[in-house]
Write a structure and sequence with these properties.
By secondary structure, this protein is of the alpha/beta class. The protein is 46% helix and 12% strand. The chain folds into two domains: 120 residues, Response regulator (Rossmann fold, 3-Layer(aba) Sandwich); 68 residues, Orthogonal Bundle (Arc Repressor Mutant, subunit A). It has a five-stranded parallel beta sheet with strand order 2-1-3-4-5, with helices on both faces. The longest helix has 15 residues.
Amino acid sequence: MAGGAEAVSVIIADDHPLFRGALRLAVDGMFSAQKIVEAASLDEVLSALQKTPDVDLVLLDLRMPGMSGYSGLTHIRSQYPGVPVVIVSGASDPTTIRRCLDFGASGFIPKTTDIDSMRKAIRAVLNGGSWTPADFDPASPVDKETTELVRRLGSLTPQQMRVLMMLSEGLLNKQIAYELSVSEATVKAHVSAILTKLGVESRTQAVIAAAKIGVGEGKTAGESGA
C-alpha cells in the first residue's frame, strides 16, 4: 500500500516502550489515516494478527519475549504470508541481515537508523519493495538449505514450535509436559509430528536443525532487547 491518502495498519513489536514510541513517531504523520497496534511479545503480535489478519506491516524486534533466534519471524511469515515483516534490530551485522531476508523479512532497519530513513524504509516495503541499510549488499548469496529449512519449520504449529524450543533446551518429555500443562502422550505426538515435518529421524537431528535458525537462543532474564 502506498500514498499518504491511504489508511494503513501497522503492528509495532518491541519489548521496550521507549523504542516502540520511537517507531510510533516514525509512522505517525506518514499517512492521513492509520491504525497502530503495539506489542511487547511474540504472543501479543500473534494475537494482534489473529484479530486483524490484513495488517499492512509488522515492525518486529528480533529479540523479545517469545522470540528464539529467527523462529518468531519464520512463524509469522508461514502463518501470515501476505503480511510484510520488517525486522528492527540492534544487531545489524551482514550475517544477521542476510538470514532475516532468507527467513522472509521484507526489510531490515537497524535501531540506529534516523526517523527519515525509517520512513523511507516503511514506504519502500508498503510499495511492495524491500529495504536494507546502504552498506549491506542485498545481492549476497541466498542459502538454499536455510530456505528449505525455513519452509519446513514454517509448517510447525505454534505448540510444536514451543516443543521444539524446549527440546533444544534439553528438556525431557516429562518436563515439557509439565511446562505446557499437557500429557506426556501429547508431547510424544508433537515430537513425532516435528520429526516428520522436518524430515529427520531423531530428536537430536531436530535439535541440530533448530539450531540453524537460532531456536533456543532467546533472550535470557535481564538481557536487553537487540
